Amino acid sequence: MLKNTIKIHPELKKAIEENELVVFVGAGISYELINSKNQKLGDWKNLVACILENLKSNGYEVEHLISLVDKSEPLEVLKLIETNKQQIPQKAICNFVKSFYEFDNKNTFSLQKI
Q: Is 79 contained in some domain?
């Protein structure tokens, strides 16, 4: 009998085991949803701006990155956050993203309006 085996990259496996994996899927379905902090989820640009505001409120010097949100692609700004000389802990960003995507009960989660 053959045993089905899936090879998972060690870092991905670790993130899954430690409940730190955040998966982004979709084509804008969650754009209008509201999180538990009454914030619209919006797009990548909004997420990056919210990450930076959170980092700023926690004492990190990210003003130079905040000014890039409107001028650069969101993933480019995320790369700059990762390489920031202050060595912002990845866990701080992961915790923020997890909390940002906690949904509010006001959401209907319907895909179609009748």
A: yes
CA distance 83 to 80: 5
Residue 41, φ and ψ in degrees, nearest 5: -65, -45
The answer as to whether 90 is a domain residue is yes
Q: What is the DSSP letter of 61?
A: -
CA distance 98 to 66: 21
Q: Do the domain assignments include residue 6?
A: no
- pTM for the model stands at 0.71
Could you tell me if residue 19 is inside a domain?
no
The pLDDT tens digits of the residues spanning 54-101 come to 999 999 999 999 999 999 999 999 999 988 777 888 888 888 998 998
Distance in angstroms between the alpha carbons of the first and the last residue of the chain: 50
In what helix (H) or strand (E) does residue 91 lie, and over which residues does it extend? helix 90-100
| Side chain identity at residue 71, one-letter code | K
Domain span at residue 97 reads: 43-104
Torsions phi, psi for 48 (to 5 deg): -65, -45
